[in-house]
């Protein structure tokens, strides 16, 4: 070892930081509707009429304050996707799995979620999907276990 690298040791490690997240008024209502009603809510801008999923309190297009809730979906279209082929301890499913952007009926934005019930090589942009809800729901985005082809 050279004198220059004498003190340059790499020590592998793992850093975990426990935390709690407050979803706020909008996120809480969205997650509670998933848990209690198996309903997917979006927010609708009063000015430009765009519907956002996940919901938000102000419009990213025209910056208007949003106060209207709307039900979206449950069906939607895959707008883009990727196949995840590696394992991470925080993944809710084993690889390989498909992570897709899904634009739900009635929404103007797409959100990412897992596709199930389909082989990765069979997934296509434009395919229609619907949610499969978890048996035990906990007010989490994973209350939608996955989306499956219709």
How would you explain this protein's 3D organization?
The chain has one helix and eight strands. It is mainly beta. The protein has one domain (24-149). The strands form two sheets. The protein has a five-stranded antiparallel beta sheet with strand order 6-5-4-7-8, with no helix packed on it. A three-stranded antiparallel beta sheet has the order 2-1-3, covered by helices on one side. The longest helix has 14 residues, at 24-37. The chain is globular, with a radius of gyration of 20 Å.
Annotate the secondary structure layout.
Layout: H1 24-37, E1 40-44, E2 51-52, E3 68-72, E4 76-84, E5 97-104, E6 111-115, E7 128-133, E8 144-149
Antiparallel strand pairs: 1-2, 1-3, 4-5, 4-7, 5-6, 7-8
């Amino acid at each position: 070892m050279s004198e220059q690298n004498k003190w340059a040791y790499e020590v592998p490690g793992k850093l975990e930081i426990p935390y709690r997240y407050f979803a706020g008024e909008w996120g809480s209502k969205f997650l509670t509707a998933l848990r209690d009603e198996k309903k997917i809510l979006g927010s609708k801008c009063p000015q430009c009429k765009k519907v956002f999923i996940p919901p938000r309190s102000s419009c990213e297009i025209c910056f208007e304050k949003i106060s209207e809730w709307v039900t979206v979906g449950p069906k939607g279209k895959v707008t883009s996707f990727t196949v995840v082929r590696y394992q991470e301890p925080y993944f809710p499913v084993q690889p390989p799995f498909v992570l897709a952007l899904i634009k739900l009926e009635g929404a103007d934005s797409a959100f990412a979620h897992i596709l199930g019930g389909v082989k990765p090589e069979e997934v296509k942009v434009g395919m229609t999907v619907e949610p499969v809800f978890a048996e035990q729901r906990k007010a989490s985005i994973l209350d939608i276990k996955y989306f499956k082809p219709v």
